[in-house]
Amino acid sequence: MKKIGGNIGAIVQIKQTQRNFLGETINEFKDLKTIKGFLDYITGESGTGTFNAKIEDSTHIFLCDYEELSEENNVRFLIDGKHYEVKMTDVPMGINHHMEIYLRYVGE
Question: CA-to-CA distance for 38 and 73, rounded, in angstroms?
């Protein structure tokens, strides 16, 4: 199957939790890999239908070739210096051709 490619690189970062000398939890994000895809803005609002709450909370969607993201809940994306929380990943029809990754913009 032909790959879909992309025009933007997203750095996939994984959250690692550590404790400091006071016993406080410190979250750090480490770069895992870079994937190419397409980033698009979505509104996340729907006045006429009922949708999954994770999709409703999303601000952007990232379309890319299929990639293994084993720890979806501990992953964020860094795109053009902006951080995006991964809300949900969808592999349409389960054919592992491409992914739709729903993101929420969280800041720079």
Answer: 21
Q: Are 46 and 74 in contact (CB under 8 A)?
A: no
Tell me the whole-structure pTM to 2 decimals.
0.80
Q: Is 40 exposed, middle or buried (0-12, 13-18, 19+ CB in 10 A)?
A: exposed
| DSSP-derived secondary structure for the chain | ------SEEEEEEEEEEEE-TTS-EEEEEEEEEEEEEEEEE-----SS----HHHHT--EEEEEE----TTGGGEEEEETTEEEEEEEEE-GGG-SSEEEEEEEEEE-
Q: Could you tell me the pLDDT band of residue 48, with boundaries at 50, 70 and 90? A: very low
Residue 94's alpha-carbon distances to 11, 74, 97, 100, in angstroms, are 24, 22, 8, 12
How far is 48 from 28, CA to CA, in rounded Å?
40
